[in-house]
Amino acid sequence: MNTARAELGAVGLEELRFDNRYGRLPPEFYTRLAPTPLPEPYLVAFNPAAADLIGLAREQAQRVEFAEIFCGNRLLPGFDPLAAVYAGHQFGVFVPQLGDGRAILLGEAAGAQGRWDLQLKGAGKTPYSRMGDGRAVLRSSIREYLASEAMHALGIPTTRALAIVGSDQPVIRESVESAAVLTRMAPSHVRFGSFELFSSRRQHEHVRTLADYVMDQHYPQLREARTPHLELLREVIARTARLVAQWQAVGFCHGVMNTDNMSILGLTIDYGPYGFMEAFDWGHVCNHSDDSGRYAYNMQPRIAHWNLYCLAEALLPLIEMEDAEAALHEYEAEYERQYTGLMRAKLGLASELTGDAALIQDALKVLHQNRADYTTFFRRLGSFESAAGADNASLRDMFPEPEAFAAWAGRYRARLALEASADTERKPRMDAVNPKYVLRNYLAETAIRKAADERDYGEIERLMQLLARPYDEQPAMQAYAEPAPQWASGLAVSCSS
Ligand code: AMP
Ligand code: MG
User: Fold this and answer.
1) Structural domain boundaries, residue 210
2) Which pLDDT score is estimated for 7?
3) Does 136 lie in the same domain as 18?
4) Catalytic residue list contains 260
5) Closest Cα partner for 257 from 210, 303, 211?
6) What is the mean pLDDT of residues 196-212?
7) What is the DSSP letter of 224?
């Protein structure tokens, strides 16, 4: 090992240290099994930033063994592969048993930056696969890979992605696609549904075991509290409120907010038919399979609250009912506080005044009525000229009804004056919170088509570089900030993955 690497502490694949504390929980929590081999795997994408988190030397990705390991064909010493079982409310309906139907937890890599679960998604059938084939397609693996890293760069809690390994093995969805395995990383993959499983089976001792496990590993400070399980619930409520406020502020739609897709750590998890808001629409439904619009953009805060009720109910063996209700009652105020704070920052408001919430809501109303591009609007708002008579043409021209924008802009100007806001001081603050680049659906689609049709993975790499710095101007990449072109207008994403 050369000195530079030694200083960084980065090691080779065989030198990584693994543990699997989840695998020391009672056997009812999982099934131990190895991934199903994938024929002739090849590396599609590798994320050095994620490798750094576990102290894996970046050049290790060039070894053939890397693809073999991160598709599940070869196990490293210390791996303890298992599929976790959980339950969950899917589209409002309780499903008594779900689980890792195509994911395999390999174990925790203990790096300089904490412990990270390494999970292979698409690694073959498990006892929880139900009707599924245990596989993931290249398309959905690229979507998750790009989105999770984009969200991280936006400052939004999320699972991470280490690599995509592909194979020419055909996988049947609406059409025949090819298989891929995504290596996902998170401090924990425990979901609300993990608690619902044991609670619905009346296995209260396992509810307690899981709650204590989560607390010991991830919320150790709560252990000393008088009512630790109540504090755990309160902490998850606060984190979830914060997470969804961040989603709303950036215009992220998850698409499938089932309780089995809700992280006990308040992470964005299980990227499927997600979408970043483009032409602003309160009721935007990104998931083509969501006929009733249950998970529409403007429903997300309420759905998260509903999901927290499910979690709280599962924790009732450990918490007094009145305490759980009181904790749940705190969600709305906490969500509003978080959301308003984030939106104030997006408007460049340094102080808090009554009327701010209305100013924010009315901006959204004008955006909605005009279907103006959400990301572009806030980015351009950073260059708002507050002098009387300034026409702010680059903003105004985004609105088919410019007078609606002008009326709002007049109020915004007056609000800025109340705190003597200076344009030059405000702009950098706003640029630091209003991304220039988000993962628009058509950008992901372009990368997917190049990968699937031409085995050209360059666009994935380009997007990773771009989205790692979403708040920077990156002038050469200006085209990537543009709204969807005509060819992309019919793109639809569904649960199929
Ligand atoms: P999702 O909504 O994608 O989070 O998936 C819901 C459940 O279906 C989870 O338990 C998944 O593990 C399972 N699942 C999804 N796709 C497949 C598949 N192709 N094979 C097996 N299980 C799957
Ligand atoms: Mg899921």
Assistant:
1) 193-341
2) 40
3) yes
4) yes
5) 303
6) 98
7) G
